[in-house]
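Please describe what follows:
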Amino acid sequence: MGKLLAVTDEPGSAGAAAIAGHMGDEGAARAFLRDGAPDVRAAAFGALARMGAITDADLRAGLGDPDPVVRRRCVALAVPHPAVALVPMLADDDGAVAEQAAWALGERDPAEPGAVAALARAATGADDALVREAAVAALGALGDEAGLPAILQATTDRPAIRRRAVLALAPFDGPDVAAALTRAAADRDWQVRQAAETILDP
């Protein structure tokens, strides 16, 4: 993770930070990066991104922020910055940050090195169900064969994850995929059945 930001004790305004982005006032936006309030710092990062002034170094610092609100925002902003590693954020202590990291990794093209393996581990082993679901969706978005075993395993998880896993099978084919879709078409959950029908009969 990046170097932790040194925050001040005087809170500013998230609205003022956002306005700085709309006005193209980089100096004001950067001043808010060290605000005492997490929502203000998050807005400041967003402001810099809006004006095209955010750097890889900014994002790495934001990913190391002590507050998950800021880390989550910077994960999303880092998608078009391939030099900023997001795989480590899958192990974040905050589930919402890890979930956002899974989504973000699925949005990168080409995939970040190590992303498929890390997402596969998260899809099958994360304690947080939302992280597992996001990781499965990301594996489907990436469409890498190396992620298929994890997607297939996820078709036996809880209903929301089974549904996501079925949809994630769309880029793949083969007997294992066909068998999983056939099972899903008879799933006890109607949303899982519906997802399978969407893939089997588009």
About this structure: Confidence is low (pLDDT under 50) at residues 1-11. Residues 1-84 form one domain. The chain has two domains: 1-84, 87-202.
